[in-house]
Specification:
This protein is α+β, with helices and mostly antiparallel strands. The protein has a domain of about 80 residues: hypothetical protein PF0899 fold (2-Layer Sandwich). It has a three-stranded mixed sheet with strand order 2-1-6, with helices on one face. Strand 1, helix 2 and strand 2 form a beta-alpha-beta unit. The longest helix has 17 residues. The chain is elongated. The model has no long low-confidence stretch (mean pLDDT about 90).
Length: about 110
């Protein structure tokens, strides 16, 4: 279950940037190709943060779809399978525009000290 290690990385980063303030919410953007199961990620977050300064912190996950653009015909296609193929001309000469993201988009802190 790689979701637990992902949550550990998120928690470590959030703790470092919290600068001693309580964190209310963390927004993350995770692309389709990261193969993260949102329910497993949320479960792992609760498990990992229980009893810590992040115990009441809400983890909000934005799933980013995989979008490719064909270099031949410029068609953009949202894909939901791991085949990078243009939906218009079936070319494999495509560029991945989104779907590989894994980032912390924002950290919402309170003004109270932890």
């Amino acid at each position: 279950m790689h979701e637990l290690s992902l949550c550990r990385a998120i928690a470590d980063t959030v703790t470092r940037y919290a600068d001693g303030q309580r964190v209310q919410r963390v927004d993350v953007r995770i692309g389709y190709f990261r193969q993260v199961v949102p329910d497993s990620l949320m479960f792992s977050w609760e498990l990992l943060t229980d009893g810590t300064a992040l115990a009441d912190c809400e983890l909000v996950v934005e799933q980013v779809p995989a979008v490719i653009e064909c270099r031949s015909c410029r068609q953009q296609t949202v894909i939901d399978w791991p085949v990078l193929l243009c939906s218009r001309c079936a070319s494999r000469d495509v560029e991945l525009l989104s779907g590989d993201e894994f980032l912390i988009a924002s950290i919402t802190r309170t003004k109270e000290a932890c």
